Amino acid sequence: MDFLSKKHEFTFINNKKSIVRVHVMKVSSTPFDIWVEGRSKKYRDCVQLLSKALSRFKTKDLPTIIVVANNKIGSGGISSYNHNDDVIYFNSHYHTEEQINKIANREAFAAQNLSDIIQHELGHKQHWDAIKRFYHAHKSRYNNIDEAKHQFDSDLESYIVRQNPNYLYFNLSPYASESFKYAKKFNKINTVNEVIAEFKVIKQTSDSTLNKLIESELNYGKA
Amino acid sequence: MEKLEPMDILRVPNKDETIVASFRKWIASYQTNDNVTIFTFKKETPKKILKSFQKHFKLFPKILGFEVSPNYEIEK
C-alpha cells in the first residue's frame, strides 16, 4: 500500500467531548480519497475493507474518509461525519469483517455491514448538504446555520413528536429512537439527524408520510 | 479560530441498548393502552427471548422513553 508523505492536520470533537488533532497521510493506492493516521497492518486492512465497501457508491458522492486511532475518535465510536470539514471519520479498531459483524449483529442500528455504516454517514452528509443549501437560499432570514437548521428540520421533528412514542423503535431502529429521545432533551438543534441517517440505510419505511418528509428535506434545492 | 462542533458519532451499543434491540425482530404487533405498549410476540419466538423480556422490560422507558407492559401476548 502506498502513501503520500505530506501530512495534513484535521481537528474534531470526539466521543468523549475532547478536542482532538490528527495528522494523516493520503493513501495513494486506492481510487478513493482515504487518509490514515498510521501505516500499520491494522490501517492497511482498514483501507482494504473500506475500499471494498466504498466501491458500491459513486465516487462523486463520497467525501474524504479519515481513518483514525481508537483513542482519537473515543472508545466506542465507530464512525462520524463532520459537516464543517465535510469528512467521514472511521475508527481503525474496526479493521476486520468479524469486528464489523459483531457490532452490526447487536441489531441496535440499521447498518448490517460496512457499506451500511458508510451509507449512514452519507445520510448525515446529505442532510447537512441540504441544510447548507437551505441556509444559503434564505441567509437574510436567519442569524446562523443552526437557526436555519431548526426551521428546516421542524416539520419532520413535529411529525415524529405527534406519533406514538414507540414509533421510531418499530419504524426505523432502536438507535434512531434512542437518539431522538436523547436529542430532544440535550441536543435540540440535532433531533432528527440520526433519524435521517438511519432512514438512508433502510431506504424506506412503511410510513409514506415519513418517507416523503425525509426525502423532501434531502432533495431540497437540488438542481 | 476554526469552528468546532460536536459530530454525530455512530457508537457501539452498550449492553442495555443491545437487550432492548434484541426483542424487535420477534415482535409481530403491538397495541397501546394508556400510553403502555403491549407486545404480541411471534409464534416462533425463542423462550430465552421471552424470559429476557420479562427480566428487562423496564429498560424500555429508561432507554427509549416509552412504557411497555410485562404482560405480552403470543401470536396465534
Describe this structure in words.
- The complex is a heterodimer of chains A (223) and B (76).
- By secondary structure, chain A is α/β, with parallel strands linked by helices.
- Chain A has 9 helices and 6 strands, in the order βββαβαββααααααα.
- Chain A has a 6-stranded mixed beta sheet with strand order 1-2-3-4-6-5.
- The N and C termini of chain A lie far apart (38 Å).
- Chain B contains 3 helices and 5 strands.
- The mean pLDDT of chain B is 94.
Q: Strands, helices and their partners?
A:
The complex is a heterodimer of chains A (223) and B (76).
Chain A: E1 3-13, E2 19-27, E3 34-36, H1 41-54, E4 64-68, H2 70-73, E5 77-82, E6 87-91, H3 97-104, H4 114-137, H5 145-161, H6 167-171, H7 174-186, H8 193-202, H9 208-218
Parallel strand pairs in A: 3-4, 4-6
Antiparallel strand pairs in A: 1-2, 2-3, 5-6
Helix pairs in contact in A: 4-5, 4-8, 5-9, 7-8
Chain B: E1 8-11, H1 15-22, E2 27-33, E3 36-41, H2 47-56, H3 59-64, E4 67-68, E5 73-74
Parallel strand pairs in B: 3-4, 3-5
Antiparallel strand pairs in B: 2-3
Helical content of chain A stands at: 40-55%
**What general outline of chain B do the C-alpha atoms trace?**
elongated
Q: How much beta of chain A, percentage-wise?
A: 15-25%
Order of helix and strand elements from N to C terminus of chain B? EHEEHHEE
* H-E order of chain A: EEEHEHEEHHHHHHH
Low-confidence spans of chain A: pLDDT under 50, at least 5 residues? none
Overall outline of chain A: globular
- Low-confidence segments of chain B, ≥5 residues, pLDDT <50? none
> Helical segment tally of chain B?
3
**What's the oligomerization state?**
heterodimer
The main sheet of chain A orders its strands as 1-2-3-4-6-5
Could you say which structural class the secondary elements and strand pairing of chain B correspond to?
alpha/beta
- Indicate the percent of residues in helices of chain B: 25-40%
The largest pleated sheet of chain A is described as: 6 strands, mixed
Number of strands of chain A: 6
